Amino acid sequence: MKYKSLLIAAIVVLFAACNNQPQNSPSDIEIPVSVKEIQKGSISRLINTTGTAMATYGVELNSEMSGLYRLQNNPGTGKPFKLGDKVRKGQIIIRLEDKAYENNIAIESKKLNLEILEQEQNKQKGLLEMGGVTPSDIRNTEVRLINARYDLDNANINLEKMYVRAPFDGVIVSLPHYTANARVEQNRPMVGIMDYANMYMDINLPESTIEYVQANQAVYITHYTLPNDTLKGIISELSPAISNETRTFKGKIIINNADMKIRPGMFVKADVVVDRAESAIIIPKNVILSNRNRRYVYVVERGIAVIRNIRTGIEDDDNAQVIEGLAENDNLIIRGFETLRENSRVKVLK
Fold it and tell me: What are the structural domain ranges in the chain?
């Protein structure tokens, strides 16, 4: 019995000693967090789609006549034209030479014949007032003059077939190889040219987005090879019809590619801007917590974590607009919020 009394006394003393040890209250523990001072910015609601960027203008030119192949020099480099060279509208890229064909055209004689008839017409007009010629003579000369002009025009058209010219400003994208001075037959491929300073892409958008997407809306164009560049585009056309098979509707985007960063045939991402807010409170979406219908975040006030219930507006992939619950310059907790409770003491890390 005495032994039991001693044991009980020892337990009581030990318990009392433990209770006398200093303990930190949970409310006194400072939880380390990182904060971000809220600043106003802009945010857009985007609808994402993908497609192939195509050149606005493109052409494959064939030889209209047969002749000896003469690839011309690029005035900018002083060397023969090659793939990737820029060309100007009307610039001669290839010349085909056929002396017999050119002689048959006889363009110089047609020029001289036209010049003689013009002189004759001027002479006859002066003689008409003096009675030296009749009105019938004047009309006959005029008919011959018109025919001579047609002959010269046709000769120039036929002679022009010996030249392969750029029909617009662009870039050489295909240039089949032919041996210099070798004879090339008619209708052989000569050169391919594209103008992709402006491009377009056909898109298919989900049926659910039809109420948001409209013509003339801005579009952001990106490609994985250009991680730091975003091109601007605009929706130029939209179909009002929904496909029965895919439940999508068609559209077309025009892309401003003045610096030619996007190349024809690239598979690109297009973000259609369907809504935008300027000078808005913007926060990262990953700091927003939810509980049933409630969405909230933590801010720091005098070293204390305080819950702020929020209402959000426009959201993109990473951020959300806060239209109620936060103000500019609030200190939003962006790291360490996962374990916080209302009124937890926090230590802000630099």
Answer: 26-43+278-348, 47-55+195-276, 62-88+97-191
Mind listing the pLDDT tens digit for each residue in 75-102?
Answer: 999 999 999 999 999 999 999 999 999 9
Furthest-apart CA atoms within the chain: distance in Å: 166
Residue type, 323: I
Q: Which CATH number fits domain 47-55+195-276: 3.30.160.100, 3.30.420.40, 2.40.30.170, 2.60.40.10?
A: 2.40.30.170
Model confidence at 28, pLDDT cuts 50, 70, 90, reads: low
DSSP letters of 121-142?
A: HHHHHHHHHHTSS-HHHHHHHH
Instruction: Give me the count of residues in the chain.
Output: 350
Q: How far apart are CA 83 and CA 174, in angstroms?
A: 6
Helix, coil or strand: residue 180: coil
**What proportion of the chain, given as a percentage, has pLDDT over 70?**
91
Reported as a single tens digit per residue, the pLDDT across 281-325 is: 999 999 999 988 899 999 999 999 999 999 999 988 899 999 999
Q: Are 50 and 270 in contact (CB under 8 A)?
A: yes
Under 8 Å between Cβ of 248 and 238: no
Could you give phi then psi for residue 326, rounded to 5 degrees? -130, 160
